[in-house]
Design brief:
The chain is of the alpha+beta class. The chain folds into two domains: 65 residues, 434 Repressor (Amino-terminal Domain); 180 residues, Beta-Lactamase (2-Layer Sandwich), CATH 3.30.450. 42% of the residues lie in helices and 10% in strands. It is built from twelve helices and five strands. A five-stranded antiparallel sheet has the order 2-1-5-4-3. A hairpin with a 5-residue loop joins strand 1 and strand 2. Helix 2 crosses helix 3. The two termini are 35 Å apart. The relative contact order is 0.13. The N terminus is likely disordered.
Length: 281
């Protein structure tokens, strides 16, 4: 190895990874052992490397800890077994049914804007109404892969159009923080730090929740190019029975109108045709 070569990354042993996920889920050894129907002593031996788990035990522990499929594969490999869950690019011919399902769901939500993102919030696909939602964002942020969180909160993105930016920022930060806690993904952690460092426009610091929707859903209030304020609530859809890593990590975000004027504005935009927008990654 030359001096210019980066040091090799040595995977953590199974016991260390298991302990990480147990502590990540705030479980004691006794608590996890009880849920997995094994002895606390044996679990302790597995975590310290004094005992090797069976493949069935690896999968059982991963299920009890609600470990994502990507990380379940890592646990299996660390324990000396082959990965169980396949990870293929979404463009893989074998995932054509998944792509068709995504396209069908996104189209079905029109005239409401809807999009699909990967585990790092990069845009995978969007329906024809998405471009209207993203109108006015800097072209440089529209180059693939388009990260929708960066696009939303960047000063040259949608930040200047979001009326309740302070609230929306905190909402997105909390969602991202929950993902970091659940997955331990350093890319998401770095993204969160980047977003939190963005300058906040004057008057956008108030994060107090108010209005009739308090305790039900936080609206996204977006100022349209013609000056109208459009109010949305968002929902997230995932594939609940996915056995492919890529598919499990996809999320579909849909923005529904929160009032009559917003619904009417969306219908007018749909009738006017598709606005230019970003291409999926």
């Amino acid at each position: 190895m030359s001096l210019a070569d980066p040091p090799a990354i040595v995977p953590q042993p199974f016991g260390a990874q298991l302990r990480h996920w147990r502590q990540h889920r705030r479980l004691s050894q006794q608590g996890l052992a009880g849920e997995a129907d094994i002895s606390t002593r044996h679990l302790s031996f597995v975590e310290t490397g004094r005992a090797l788990p069976s493949r069935e035990m690896v999968l059982r522990l991963a299920q009890r800890l609600d470990v994502p499929l990507r990380e379940r594969n890592a646990l299996l490999v660390a324990a000396g077994y082959a990965p169980m869950y396949r990870e293929r690019p979404l463009a893989d011919p074998a995932l054509a049914p998944a792509r068709e399902a995504i396209a069908l769901i996104l189209r079905a939500h029109e005239p409401n804007p809807a999009l699909a993102v990967d585990r790092h919030w990069n845009l995978v696909a969007g329906n024809r109404m998405l471009a209207h939602l993203l109108a006015g964002a800097d072209a440089g942020l529209m180059q693939g892969p388009v990260n929708v969180l960066r696009l939303s909160l960047h000063p040259r993105g949608l930040a200047g159009r979001i009326v309740n930016l302070g609230q929306w920022r905190e909402h997105l930060f909390e969602r991202l923080h929950q993902q970091v806690r659940a997955t331990g993904d350093t890319v998401l952690s770095d993204l969160l730090a980047e977003l939190q460092a963005y300058p906040v426009p004057e008057g956008a610091h108030d994060t107090r929740l108010g209005g009739e929707h308090l305790g039900v859903a936080l609206p996204l209030q977006l100022r349209a190019p013609d000056g109208r304020v459009l109010s949305f609530i968002s929902t997230t859809t995932v594939f609940g029975t996915a056995v492919d890593v890529t598919v499990q990590e996809l999320a579909l975000e849909t923005f529904f109108p929160l009032d009559g004027p917003t619904g009417e504005a969306l219908r007018q935009l749909a009738a006017a045709g598709e606005a230019p927008g970003p291409s999926p990654a």
